[in-house]
């Protein structure tokens, strides 16, 4: 049986929630990572993924500029990086210069991969749509990578940015 409750109460039941780190280069050529909670598979053929980015985020500019982005599934050992990338603006900081994180060049697009991630997906920007206070970007996956070592994925496991492996 269901009971009628306010949205703010019901949405708390969403945990665990997957997170990703999206990366796109800005006009200066700096790779800008951002941690996002809203992501999904958008198509199987061709393979596509979507991310929702808040309109106020600098990442909107970087994705529109570069026309491509990387979607990374962070490993559980990347919790500090995920928190850092989600709490600093690339407008004001070079996040990779301030936080030591293993990167390697992407193979097919002008971006980077995260070396400790469970998986990385190189995407070309296919479309975008406005959705309230967010922009949804749909990327066509043109290259996929998995870690050579087994790693657990990082998730938001509770309110207040509580992170952990699931």
Task: Give the structure's gist in a few sentences.
With 166 residues, the protein is of the alpha+beta class.
Can you describe what's shown?
By secondary structure, the protein is of the alpha+beta class. Helices cover 15% and strands 44% of the residues. It is built from four helices and twelve strands, in the order αβββββαβααββββββ. The protein has a seven-stranded antiparallel sheet. The two termini are 28 Å apart.
Low-confidence stretches: none
Distance between the termini: 28 Å
Most strands sheet: 7 strands, antiparallel
Q: How many individual β-strands?
A: 12
Question: What level of helicity do the residues show?
Answer: 10-25%
Provide the spatial order of strands within the biggest beta sheet: 3-2-6-9-10-5-4
Our estimate of the beta-strand percent is: 35-45%
What class do helices, strands and sheet pairing give?
alpha+beta
Summed up, the helix count is: 4
Rg from alpha-carbon coordinates? 16 Å
Mean pLDDT over the full residue set? 96
Element-by-element helix/strand order: HEEEEEHEHHEEEEEE
Gross morphology? globular
Keywords:
166 residues; 4 helices; alpha+beta; 15% helix; globular; 7-stranded antiparallel β-sheet; 3-stranded antiparallel β-sheet
Topology:
Blueprint: H1 7-10, E1 17-18, E2 20-25, E3 31-36, E4 39-43, E5 48-54, H2 59-66, E6 68-73, H3 79-87, H4 95-98, E7 103-105, E8 112-114, E9 119-131, E10 134-146, E11 154-158, E12 162-165
Antiparallel strand pairs: 1-11, 2-3, 2-6, 4-5, 5-10, 6-9, 7-8, 9-10, 11-12
